[in-house]
């Protein structure tokens, strides 16, 4: 088993490598920008540490001993590997891990990743899609997008991204034979697509002032699945307007009911106030700037 505590001092190894490269203490001293005596002392200390001679001191300079030559090759290779590893580390992109809900990931963030890459080419953005509450420290998360309501802990920086303005959407073909906007009687002939937020009762009350029994209910555990079902023409889904804005503009979806439900859980960007990296702050600025530019 190797004992790292028995390794020679780094400065002594550097002096040895430089002296072996130039074969004189004077040239090694110039290379390291120290005195000739300092290099000689470091090499002498290394030899004492190892218990063997590395150089023969000759009138015209230095000559390797057999052990010194082999050791110089190995130590030089080790320094080269350290230099390569350090250069690779410095040139690697800064990593930022963001935790978002699956729907936010698929419907808002992923469609804009090319814009992010263009704006922040030096950042390696890692996306974790989950509904569960994350621990920044335990899960290695730098920032998170979550539906929540204030107040937040004093240790968290919270930026509101989107209000929870909930709208009903469906594929145009689903209501091609209906008069729009739909009334309660028309809605009762439709299939309603539910997610775990279960906002249909509140939405119907807001839209019609009474309850409406649909022809059928389909239930999913994620909003993104209800939206995929709506795009496939299987029913009417509810979602925050910003999540479906692109599909509405492209006319892949339409709003069959004019009402908007103001939800109680808005979308916030959360991150620790202390210890945030420059790359994390850059991602935050990109998110806020991109949202500000949206119509």
Describe what this molecule looks like in 3D.
This protein is an alpha/beta fold and 295 residues long. It has helices at 10-22, 25-32, 36-50, 66-91, 102-109, 113-119, 184-187, 200-208, 223-231, 241-249, 278-293; strands at 55-58, 61-64, 94-100, 123-129, 143-148, 156-162, 165-169, 191-194, 216-219, 236-240, 261-262, 266-272. Helix 2 crosses helix 3 (36-50).
CATH topology of the largest domain: D-Maltodextrin-Binding Protein, domain 2
Looking at the chains present, what oligomeric state does this protein adopt?
A: single chain
Look at the helices and sheets and give the structural class.
alpha/beta
Rough outline: rod-shaped
CATH hierarchy class name of the largest domain: Alpha Beta
Strand order of the largest sheet: 4-3-5-12-6
- The residue fraction in helices comes out at 40-55%
Radius of gyration: 33 Å
Number of helices: 11
**Could you tell me how far the N terminus lies from the C terminus, measured between alpha carbons in angstroms?**
64 Å
Portion in strands: 15-25%
Count of domain modules: 3
CATH homologous superfamily assignment of the largest domain: Periplasmic binding protein-like II
Tell how many strands the DSSP assignment holds: 12
Average of the residue pLDDT scores: 93
The string of secondary-structure elements, in order, is: HHHEEHEHHEEEEHEHEHEHEEH
Low confidence ranges: none
């Amino acid at each position: 088993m190797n004992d790292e505590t028995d390794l020679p001092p780094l400065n002594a190894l550097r002096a040895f490598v430089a002296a072996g490269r130039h074969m004189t203490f004077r040239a090694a001293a110039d290379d390291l920008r120290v005195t000739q005596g300092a290099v000689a002392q470091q090499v002498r200390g290394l030899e004492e540490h190892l218990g063997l001679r590395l150089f023969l001191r000759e009138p015209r300079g230095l000559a390797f001993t057999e052990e010194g030559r082999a050791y110089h090759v190995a130590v030089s290779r080790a320094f080269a590997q350290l230099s390569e590893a350090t250069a690779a580390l410095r040139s690697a992109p800064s990593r930022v891990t963001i935790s978002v809900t699956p729907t936010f990931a698929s419907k808002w963030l992923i469609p804009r990743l090319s814009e992010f890459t263009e704006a922040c080419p030096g950042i390696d953005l890692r996306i974790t899609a989950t509904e569960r509450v994350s621990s920044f420290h335990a899960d290695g998360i730098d920032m998170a997008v979550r539906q929540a309501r204030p107040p937040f802990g004093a240790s968290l920086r919270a930026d509101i991204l989107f209000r929870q303005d909930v709208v009903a959407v469906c594929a145009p073909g689903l209501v091609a034979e209906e008069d729009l906007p739909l009334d309660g009687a028309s809605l009762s002939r439709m299939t309603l697509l539910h997610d775990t937020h279960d906002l249909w009762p509140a939405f119907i009350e807001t839209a019609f002032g009474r309850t409406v029994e649909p022809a059928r209910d389909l239930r999913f555990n994620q909003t993104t699945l209800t939206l995929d079902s709506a795009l496939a023409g299987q029913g009417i889904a509810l979602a925050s307007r910003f999540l479906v804005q692109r599909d509405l503009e492209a006319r892949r979806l339409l709003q069959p009911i004019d009402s908007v439900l103001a939800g109680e859980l808005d979308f916030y960007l959360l991150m620790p106030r202390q210890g945030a990296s420059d790359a994390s702050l850059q991602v935050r600025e990109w998110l806020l700037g991109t949202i500000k530019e949206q119509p």
